[in-house]
Request: fold
Amino acid sequence: MPTFQNFDSFRLEVRSRDHNPPHFHIVGPDHHALVNIQTLQVMEGTLTRKMLAEAVTWAAENTDALMNEWRRLNERD
Reply:
């Protein structure tokens, strides 16, 4: 899967042909969660508070880039 951002213990992915609403995946060795790009709320999955805080802080500063990547990978005719 395409990694959008790497962190020390996990990565953030925006995947192609993914379902709505626009979201990103947080993937770590023992965790996987989906986070809504617009609300930054966990849609499903589990992860540590530290992982969530780090990912959400980064995502809040990069929302436009995440949405642009989501649209690029998930445009539907």
